[in-house]
Amino acid sequence: MHQMGGLPKPKHQLVSVIRNRDIKTTASLQGVKVINHLYTVIFKPSMACSSFSYGRNLYDYEEGTLVFTAPGQVMEFKSDAKEDEQIDPEGWSLVFHPNIFRRSDLADKINRYSFFHYDSNEALHLSDYERSSIEDLLNKIIQEYSQQLDRHSQHLIVSNIELFLDYCLRFYDRQFFSRTNLNKDVISKFERLLLNYYESDQACLKGVPSVEFCAKQLNLTPNYLSDLLKKETGKTTLEHIHLFLIEKAKNSLLNSSDTISGIAYSLGFEFPQRFSNLFKSKTGMSPKEYRTLN
C-alpha cells in the first residue's frame, strides 16, 4: 500500500494509517487493478463526499463518511479524475492485515463487523462528535505503532482497532435508527418482493428465493439487508423468508388437498424432506401432524 502511494516504508508491517495529503501520484498505477489483502477503512471528509455516489439522504450526518472493505476485494486506480475531484487532503485510510489479530479475541469477533461487506452506497456517515471519537482512536493506533515496540504494543494496537470497530458498530446502529422511515420502506418492498415472487410462480422455476436474490432485487448487499431487518424487526432476511414460507405452507395444508410433496415443490423446494425439516423446526410438528391437528 505504501509503495503504491509513493510513501516511505510503514512503521509497522501489519497496520498503518495512510494520510491522503502524503500520497504522491503514481502515474504507472493508473487503471491498474489489484487484489487488496488488507482490511481497509477509508475516511472521506464532508467536502469530498459530493464527488462520490453514496446515495446519501438528507437525514444523514455530513462530517465525513467511512467506507469499509475486507480482504480479497479488488481495487482499481482510476485515471480519469478531473482537476477539481482530486483526493481530499484531509482524508485517510486505516489498513491492517488479518495476521495482526490472529492470536487475539478479535480473530473470533471480526465477522460480527458485517459492514466490511457493505457496498459504498451503504457507507457510514458521521456526526462531528462521531468523527472526533473515531479520530481519537486512530491517533492512539498511530501512537502505538510509531514508538519503540515492546511486549504491550501488539495487545494495545489490536485493542484499539477492536475499539475503533466497536464504535463504528455503534454509529451504524444510530444510522439504522435515524433511517427508520426509509428502512420501513425497504421492509415493505421486501415483503412485496416475496409476494410477487410466489404469485408469479417463480418459485417453481427458480426455487426458494435466496438472501442474495432478495438483496440484489432491493439494490442492497446481503449483509446490509440482513442487518437492517435485524435492527428493525429482530429477524434476519433468512428468518423472514422462512417465516413467509411457513405461513404459505400452513395455508396450503389447511385449505387444499395437495400432497405435502406437491406443496413443497410449489414453494420451491427441490426435495420435500427439506421442506418437512424446515416446517418441523419452525412449528414443532411435521406438515402431516399440522394438517391432522387442524
Helix and strand layout, with pairings?
Layout: E1 15-19, E2 33-36, E3 39-44, H1 46-49, E4 65-69, E5 73-76, E6 92-96, H2 106-109, E7 124-125, H3 128-146, H4 153-178, H5 180-199, H6 202-206, H7 211-217, H8 222-233, H9 237-255, H10 260-266, H11 272-283, H12 287-293
Antiparallel strand pairs: 1-6, 2-5, 3-4, 3-6, 4-7
Helix pairs in contact: 3-4, 7-8, 9-11, 9-12, 10-11
In short:
This protein folds into 2 domains: 15-178, Jelly Rolls; 182-293, Homeodomain-like (Arc Repressor Mutant, subunit A).
Question: Can you walk through the features of this model?
Answer:
The protein has 294 residues and is an alpha+beta fold. It folds into 2 domains: 15-178, Jelly Rolls (Sandwich); 182-293, Arc Repressor Mutant, subunit A (Orthogonal Bundle). Helix content is 48%, strand content 11%. The protein contains 12 helices and 7 strands.
